[in-house]
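lol forgot to send this yesterday, sorry. struct tokens for the thing we talked abt
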């Protein structure tokens, strides 16, 4: 079974603490991350063991994925473990201080498609294209939210 690893990054002119808060406070994230629905168990702020689900809708189709928050190192890292279809594996968000602001890196450390449709989607190369497009869209929305 093939697995996928990627890193997508953006520089944000904001302190690490504000970036981390925008990424780990689900009510706030739902407000700036347009185009998805976010559901979570328990508190509005991320905590280790918390289950979170994202749902994307378009005019052609919709899909959702869930992850469990598997680790936190505020204000630098958030670790996630995908918990089922269409993805399984690990991911992380890392916030790296720079001269002006921070670089935000989204890592797919080892992710594999789960389920027949997902496996076909990735085998055709569509999964990685969609992942890049949506990840960069999220990172740009984060940047706009914090810098405007």
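and heres what i got for the seq, position by position
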């Amino acid at each position: 079974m093939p697995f996928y690893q990627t890193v997508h990054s953006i520089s944000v002119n904001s302190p690490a603490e504000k970036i981390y808060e925008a990424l780990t406070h689900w009510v706030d994230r739902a407000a700036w991350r347009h185009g998805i629905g976010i559901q979570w168990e328990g508190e509005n702020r991320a905590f280790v063991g918390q289950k979170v689900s994202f749902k994307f809708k378009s005019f052609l189709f919709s899909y959702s994925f869930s992850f469990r928050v598997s680790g936190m190192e505020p204000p630098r890292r958030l670790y996630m473990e995908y918990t089922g279809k269409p993805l399984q594996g690990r991911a992380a968000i890392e916030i790296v201080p720079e001269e002006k602001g921070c670089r935000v890196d989204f890592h797919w450390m080892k992710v594999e498609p789960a389920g027949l449709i997902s496996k076909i989607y990735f085998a055709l190369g569509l999964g990685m294209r969609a992942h890049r497009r949506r990840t960069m869209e999220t990172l740009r929305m984060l940047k706009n939210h914090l810098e405007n």
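Residues 113 and 120 are 9 Å apart (CA to CA). anyway ping me if u want another try
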